[in-house]
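Narrative of activities, Objective 1.

The group set out to show that a structural description can be obtained from nothing but a protein's sequence at a throughput compatible with the screening campaign. Below is one input-output pair from the validation batch, recorded exactly as produced.
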Amino acid sequence: MIIAKSQKELEKMRAVGELIATVRETLRSMIAPGITTLEMNAAAEKMMRDAGAIPTFIGYKPHGMVPFPFAICASVNEAIVHGFSNDTPLKEGDIVSLDMACTLDGFVGDTAFTAPVGEVSEELMRLIRTTEECLALGIEQCRPNNRIGDISAAIQAHAEKGGYGIVRDYTGHGIGRRMHEAPQIPNYGRAGTKEKIRAGYCFAIEPMLNLGTHETKTLEDKWTVVTLDGKPSAHAEHTVAVTPEGPEILTLTKAQKDALRNKKAETVTG
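Output recorded for this entry:
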C-alpha cells in the first residue's frame, strides 16, 4: 500500500530533505583528485549526527544480507550503487556516485548524484548529464492522476535515446517513515500502467544508466553492484513529494529552494 503523507508529515519530509541536500552539496564540493571516499563518508556521518539525524544506511539490513557499514554509498566508475567507502584516493578522470540518506524526526530523506573527478571525457560527462535529465523527466511525471508507469516510461525513453543501458535490477521507491516503501518505481516501463499517483505520495526517483550493458553483478562484499561489462555507470536521485500543483523536490538546500522560487517568480512576471 502506498502511504500518503499529511501536511505535518510533509513538513518533516521537507526538513530531512533539506538536511540531506546540505550533506550532498558539501560532499560535492569535496570531490577532487586525491580525496578518498572514506574521508567523504566520515564528513557525511558527522554532519548528519551533528544535526541530530541518524545515518539511515548504517546497519541497514535487507532480508538475508549483511548490515551495510557506511553512512554513504560510494560507487566509482563501473560501480553502479551500494559501493563501500575505502582509502583509495580518487584520481583524475574517475567518476564517483554518492548515495546518502538520513532519518530526522522519524522521516527519511534520500538523494544521490554522480560527479566527475577533475577533468573527464566528454563521453562520461554526457552520461552524467543524461542521467540527471532522466531524473528531471521522471520527476516531472510525479503529478496527481498520472501513473507510476509514466515516470518509468519518461526515464526509459530519454535513456534509450542516448543509447544507454538502463539498470533493471534496482529501482526507485516510495519513501517516508522508512527508506523503502511502496511502490517500486522501475526506470523502464509503459506509460499509463501501474498505480495511480495521488497528492501526498513521496517518491525517491533514481535513474541508473550504464555506458554499456544494463546487466549487473554483485561483488564479494555482498553489496557493491557493478556493470557486468566493466563500463562506467551514473546514478542520480531526489526525494519528491506529489502536491496538487505537481512535484516538489524535497532534497534541495535552502539556497537551491530560494533560487528555484526566484526563477519561478521571474517566469511569472516575465
